[in-house]
Amino acid sequence: TREPHHKIMESQKSTLRNGLLLSATAIVAVVGIARWRRRKGQDDTNSKTVTVHGRVHKATVGSRGLQALSPPIPYISDFLKCLQDPCDPHDNPKGYIPLCIAENKLSVDILAERLMQPGLASAAFADSEVYAYSSFLGLPIAREAVAYFLATRFLHPDRKLSPAQALREVSPSHVALGSGCASLLNYLFYTLGEEGQGCLVPAPYYAAFDNDMGSIAGCKPIPVPMSNMSLGPTTPELEDAYRKGSKTRKVKFLLLTNPNNPLGVVYGPKVMKEAVAWARSKKLHIIMDELYALSTRNGTFQSSIRLLNNDLGNDVHMIWALSKDFGASGFRVGMLYSQNALLMESLANLNLFSGVSHPIQMVTAEMLTDDEWCDNYLEQSRQRLQYSYELCVRKLEEMVVPFIPAAAGIFVYADFSALLPSKTWEGEEQFSRLMMDYAKLVLTPGESQREQRPGYFRICYATVSPEILAIAMERLSRLVVKLRKLHWTDLNETSLQSVLT
Question: How confident is the model over 329-353, as a mean pLDDT?
Answer without folding.
Answer: 96
